[in-house]
Amino acid sequence: MPEPWLLKTANLLQICVPLLSLSAYLPQWKKILRTRSAHDISLRAWLIWTVSSLFALCYALVQWQINQQTWPLLISSSATMLCVLTTVALVLFYRRRTGE
User: Fold this and answer.
1) Is the pLDDT of residue 54 over 90?
2) Percentage helix, strand, coil, to 5, in the chain?
3) Residue 81: closest CA among 40, 35, 49
């Protein structure tokens, strides 16, 4: 079993993942909302990220079932999935709205 300080550090780093990821999502959302267009956003790439996030979330859920100590991974994976789905929703909304 790893040292307690190492587990606490790893948990803290895992919790930082969605915060860092959010800093990458915000410019995308800002651009879509400001221009009211999703023309420059690759829907195919975001759909691939959606599948990737779903796999990560499934993995986190399985790990939670195994040892109930992976709450940072579960939170991180859930937050990432939420951000990816928000981006896809914005892209679909503005593409339908503008007929892109």
Assistant:
1) yes
2) 85, 0, 15
3) 49
